Amino acid sequence: MPTVAVKLYSVFFKFLLKHRLQNRIQTPTEESDSFGITSRPDESLASPNPSFTDGVATKDIHIDSNLSLSVRIFLPESALLNPEPNSKPKRKLEPKGRETTSSPRVNTRRNSYGPSVAPVKEEVRRNSVGGGDAEGLNLNLNLTSGGGYGGYGGYGGYSPTIDDRKRKLPVMVQFHGGGWVSGSNDSVANDYFCRRIAKLCDAVVVAVGYRLAPESRYPAAFEDGFKVLSWLGKQANLAECSKSLGIKKLDGGHRHIVDSFGASMVEPWLAAHGNLSRCVLLGVSCGANIANYVAQKAVETGKLLDPVKVVAQILMYPFFVGSVPTHSEIKLANSYFYDKAMCMLAWKLFLPEKEFSLDHPAANPLVPGHGPPLKQMPPTLTVVAEHDWMRDRAIAYSEELRKVNVDAPVLEYKDAVHEFATLDVLLRSPQAQVCAEDIAIWVKKYISLRGHEFSY
């Protein structure tokens, strides 16, 4: 059974969330601007940390001037290691006078999440939003030699050089949970989780701040998810143009040409360290619904997304539902954190009133006739919790994928509750670290440069 702390926090969480949902249902939402919002005023946010002081640097970017859509990039310090052919990255040397241990790699991974760091100044956060200017990108490749910790353009954080000598890490696009109406990509809980995933998976994590309901109902969040994937593709293409035109010292005329190609919009962290041909989608709760939709759209779009290639997706306790109740929906209807009655309120706030149905394609992925055939879906890892009423429907979706030969394992965690791995900053559950490690083991089959060097 869950611990006493989990039970107490669940009661408090459900009381607050139910109060918020009922208030929003009782207060009719005015016809709002499509710009939308991505976080609530009462959300506890973590400031970006651009300097690797805890092993992962983060940076916030507002990527659409017409929407509130934003991303937070999590860059692990391992990205600074230069690749060596036919060898594994060398371990970072400890300063003189400090003894190093020869403990196994597993122990290192289990202790991989370091202590939290002090928040950076607010002015740094404001300067971190946006792509920076052309001088910040520095097409002459003369920023900080070797990709060090220099400041540029008032940002004050890590500033990479755009060249081919840096490690190219896979990119994981993460969608947070919150029942469509709450949560944030830069919340304390989501920040903690994404840092852990970035370290264990050795990947650049792009956490998406999609628009929330009821200010922005379906399909706003789904569209935002695919816009981020399209934005990543543009980043790669613009970076390639910038590199090819700016590899030599440019005169004023050529500088103007490069700027017209969009050099000022290139995000150097992604251009220097992201390998978008190894892209993984990771969705949490309702974010898993978004991830699954984005995977479907990626299949339908095909080569038009190049060089972005979705090689796998991870669905963590997906927010699936349907008109015919499953065994877990009946037995665990009053489960921890998100009970079924509360989730129905969330769906009413998310779906347009005229389209409300528990078999809506956003709610039930097994409704026939929506999206591409299941056999075309990417490999899908599903994470479920024992005490979660949504468990059985997630398992059923995974079973349907396996029937058409898609690699779709299910990881079920005993004594775990909905959001157990992504609220670990509060719950401190022993299963959370194990779950993150299990995800890293499975996903490395698809993001490793040397193929299936990891087995599950």
UniProtKB/TrEMBL annotation:
Region: Disordered, residue numbers: 27-53, 80-117
Pfam families: Abhydrolase_3
Signal peptide: none
InterPro entries: AB_hydrolase_3, AB_hydrolase_fold, Carboxylest/Gibb_receptor
Domain of life of the organism encoding this protein: Eukaryota
Ranges where the Alpha/beta hydrolase fold-3 domain occurs: 172-421
Gene3D superfamilies: alpha/beta hydrolase
Species annotation: Vicia faba
Molecular functions per Gene Ontology: hydrolase activity
Biased composition (Polar residues): 100-114
Record-given protein name: Alpha/beta hydrolase fold-3 domain-containing protein
Transmembrane stretches, start-end: none
Stated family: Belongs to the 'GDXG' lipolytic enzyme family.
